[in-house]
Amino acid sequence: MAEEVDYESEDEKTTTTTTKKTGGGSAMHSANFKDFVLRPELLNAITECGFETPSQVQQECIPVAMHGSDIICQARSGMGKTAVFVLATLHLMDLEKENQCQVLVLCHARELAYQISKEYKRFSKYMRPDICEVFIGGIPLKQNIETLAARVPPVIVGTPGRVLDLATQKKLDLSKVSMFVIDECDRVLGGETRNGVETFDMRSEVQKVFAMLPLEKQVMMYSATLPPSIRSTLKKFCRDANPKEVFVDDTQTLKLTGLLQYMREVEEKEKSAILSDIIDNYEFNQVVIFVSNFKRCQVLSNLMNEAGFPSNFIHGKMKQEERIKRFDAFKSGEFRILLATDLLGRGIDIENVNLVINYDFPSSDDQYLHRVARAGRFDTKGLAISFISTPEDKEILAKVQSRFDVSIPVLPAEVIDYNLYKN
Ligand code: AMP
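^ thats the input. predicted complex w/ adenosine monophosphate below
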């Protein structure tokens, strides 16, 4: 597994819903969760979670998913994609069936798998206990085998490598899966460049898992970014010849409504002083500071602590238990400053983060979007500040601005008014 890893013919008749939005994640129509006619136990849990109105992606996708159709969905981070497949699969599952996996959800990162499993737990509160288990690398395999020997849960969320291991060793029977979900599917099925070489490790693991699933199953794939090159690959995994394709927001003009974005050109040697200055002067609930690799993550966190800014860090070289522990501690607000590699760049939802700093600028425009979307999720506001220090950074910044049709101005000398990004 890589640091985190962890790790084509178009069908002309495809039904595509491309919806351009001007607002944030909130509903554009007057739909209500009750209109979906979900199980009453689910509606109770939805109310308890404080969800009042379905977001646009939920309005577009939940009825289609509940109907059992295959879905390929692209919607920006923070719009409530997770609830789409969690609610639809919980609604469709057969509660009478014991000891078999009906829903398999795969995603690229262990923390994301853990986060998705928590959503299953939250929404299934009134259905039955222990609806979901998470199987991810970094946790002893034996532990997963014991869990499965005691009882196979109806929902399994995992990373491809671990699920494949369990299935290959015949500890996990996938032959009864009726719903198959891939979250962050472009990352899972697309290639990844490691040391300048493009690899498709995770895709080949997923293909092997896929071969163990029954032919008749619903397939749902979600991501914030879906480059055109990956779409035909995604369709090969679908059962329906014409999966429902939902693109909420067009990638060309993908806007992060509510998010203020600024950049500052800095020399590498000035970075830590400027960072301290920002942390000292800017108000925020919680901040995620992205760096390019685990060493920088550790070193910078130490520097921050020495400078009197209590912080912690998460990267892919840490023990899984420790990663989850720190992730949970940050989520529950035990500390406010988190240094992270791109491990946390995608899909992770931390409600109170309203400041993201790209200490090291990301290596792609997609990655920029995933990172800055950690602030300003689901109609909340946020601020993203990026340090630009190399010609490559400038190149990627130009790509970001042109692709997302956004102008990222220079960070003004005076501190940004907190009311503009307070959530
Ligand atoms: P996601 O895009 O799935 O990561 O969701 C982003 C955040 O929005 C999560 O904290 C969800 O709990 C929250 N969320 C999703 N749907 C709704 C909704 N309809 N109303 C309020 N919050 C929501």
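The domain at 18-247 is CATH 3.40.50.300 (Rossmann fold).
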